[in-house]
Amino acid sequence: CGFRTYSTGRVTVVNCVAKNMRVGFALAKVSLMNCEAIACERGYYLNNAVTKDCKGDAKYGPLIYLVGDEPSKIDLTLMPGESEKKVHAVATICGIGHEVSIKTSDTDNRKKAIPIMLGYGMPGSGEIASPIPPKAAENIKIKNMAFLPVLIGEKANNCVVTTNGVIDSNQGENIKIIEID
After folding, report:
1. Would you give the DSSP letter of residue 129?
2. What does pLDDT average to in each consecutive run of 10 residues of the chain (181 residues)?
3. In contact, 88 and 46? CB cutoff 8 Å
4. What is the rounded CA–CA span in Å between residue 61 and residue 45?
5. Element of type H or E holding 48
6. b/e for 28-64, b at 16 or more Cβ within 10 A?
7. Global pTM value
């Protein structure tokens, strides 16, 4: 890991870069500002976190795995990055009460089919070749400004998805979809 904590207390991480790591930022009870995850197998694995002006790519794996029953407030920018590797998700989001904003300056994302997955967790041991399991997601707000498809699993409930991408599947309950141009 580039940066890792084990819930030892609130930690603040500012202006840090993780490059070519298995996990860029594996953190709980954390505030991140102006951080980057570049060419990592998973950029951010967060629980009870706040990010502001952070970014990363999904070149070798997801930009973020977001988990936890303590609300997180996530603001991430998806950076361009192509690879010959198969990436199954830009983000998996589960837990309770999160607010997630994913944006990009790369409008070529419209051509990609890599989804943001609501109601899904991290694969076993974080292995990108393992199946992505369904996980409970409640009262979560997602703002997808990255032109990516959104896949909503059957364990998602009472969530709001604001998106400029397509809804690839909606198996959740009480999901409000707001489409934007």
Report:
1. T
2. 82 95 93 96 95 95 95 95 82 98 76 87 75 95 95 98 94 96 79
3. no
4. 12
5. strand 42-52
6. bbbebeebbbbbbbbbbbbbbbbbeebbbbbbbbbbb
7. 0.93
